[in-house]
Amino acid sequence: MDMNLAVENISAGYGKTQVISNINLAVGPGRICALMGRNGSGKTTLLRCINGVISPFEGKVSIMGKDICRLSRDRIAGMISVVPQVSFSPFSFSCMDMVLMAGASRIKAWSAPSKKDREKAFSVMAEAGIDHMADSAFNSISGGERQLVMLARGLFQDTPVMLLDEPNSHLDFTNQHRIMALMQTLVKKRKTTVLITLHDPNLVYYYCDEVVLLHNGGVVASGETRTTMTDDVLSRVLGDNIQCDVTLKGVFVVTPKQINSPNNNSGIKVKI
């Protein structure tokens, strides 16, 4: 299978400090790959490397077979869209304006978005369930709503590869699942490659095709989600005694074995 995204032996960091080392991954079209790991494990650094924001100490990132280090920023913007964790605009743009800005690499200098551009942007916002906010001021809406706008912006950019850095960090429970389900549908439809950082292993299990588990800047395990996420691997990566199980209703869940809660009525003895 052809790979939209390939990372070969990447090592990178900041200044002389190495954060990630010897990272390898390859993701094909129509696939969602999750990056999981504790805070500081190197997930965001890897995304910045893939997007060409920082240069690797060694190794290579290829998008559609092209070395990212040899591409201009405009060319990269036409191949990779990024949905960041938190967004705020220093100017009073509308939500529609924020989405339309993602087309900057396709619009000629000093030109305004066309009617077709606006129709496409509105359609993408409708897919994300936020078309009613098209004229709302971006800075006046909630953090979760801004995250939905940024997702629509990434989809409007219409690139073969999307990078999402903890896109669920400001979303409520229902919207977390709605966005992941939407991503699943659109990724299959558009044959897009998605690399997404997530903290919740349950979201990874149900919505991601593949997973790469990072710890201390290196890959502990990678592969198909449902075979790679085991008790042992998750415990090593997440730093707790993790248990993968199936409930009485047949639902797969990932939980810590010891539940440190004052409302714990499970019968598990909790050490304090």
Tell me what the structure shows:
It is a single chain. Helix content is 31%, strand content 26%. By secondary structure, it is of the alpha/beta class. Strand 7 (161-165), helix 6 and strand 8 (193-197) form a beta-alpha-beta unit. The chain is globular and about 55 Å long. It has two domains: 1-79 and 159-240, P-loop containing nucleotide triphosphate hydrolases (Rossmann fold, 3-Layer(aba) Sandwich); 92-157, no CATH class. It is built from nine helices and twelve strands. Strands 6-7-8-3-9-10 form a six-stranded mixed beta sheet, with helices on both faces. It has a four-stranded antiparallel beta sheet with strand order 2-1-4-5, with helices on one face. The protein has helices at residues 43-50, 73-77, 95-100, 115-127, 143-157, 173-190, 201-207, 225-228, 231-238, and strands at 5-14, 17-27, 31-36, 58-63, 66-67, 80-83, 161-165, 193-197, 210-215, 218-224, 242-246, 252-256. The protein starts with a strand and ends in a 16-residue tail after the last strand. Mean pLDDT is 86; it is low at 260-272. The longest helix has 18 residues, at 173-190.
Write out the CATH superfamily name of the largest domain: P-loop containing nucleotide triphosphate hydrolases
Structural class: alpha/beta
Count of folded domains:
2
Question: Which CATH top level class of the largest domain fits?
Answer: Alpha Beta
**Could you tell me the strand content as a percent range?**
25-35%
